[in-house]
Amino acid sequence: MTGSGSFGDMGNLLKQAQQMQRELDRAREELRTTVVTGTSGGGAVRMDATGEGMIVRVSIRADAATSGDAAMLEDLVLAAARDAITKANELRQDRMGRVTGGLNLPGIL
Questions:
Q1: How far is CA 78 from the centre of its chain?
Q2: pTM value?
Q3: Angle value at C-alpha 91, between 89 and 95, nearest 5 degrees
């Protein structure tokens, strides 16, 4: 045995790792620019978040803001934020799962 086969295998592994890194970079960029929307109260409160989970916009319908019920409005804001973050997490898991083939690779997500 000459051992040259193992160097060829190593080269293929390196190429696959480099391709996966490029795909991860593309997926991360997509997550930075994709926006998901969380809502509550039938659309009374809307929150936009990036695929990375950063809240970038909050919208509160006038009737919800002027209702005078601060506790209800707080609950609606919290529910919309949770909805947006849940959608961002699902998007992130989907995009990264496509790249990793569903493997759980710590530090990737």
A1: 19
A2: 0.77
A3: 120
Domain carrying residue 48: 35-99
Q: How many domains is the chain built from?
A: 1
Question: Is residue 73 over pLDDT 60?
Answer: yes
Q: Which of 29, 35, 26, 73 is nearest to 54 (CA)?
A: 35
pLDDT in tens, 23-64: 999 999 999 999 999 999 999 999 999 999 999 999 999 999
Pairwise CA distance, residues 20 & 25, whole Å:
9
12 sits in which H/E element: helix 4-33
Is residue 20 assigned to a domain? no
**Is 49 within a domain?**
yes
Contacts of residue 67, defined as CB under 8 A and 6 or more positions apart, other chains included, come to: 73
Pull the structure tokens for residue 80: 């919309």
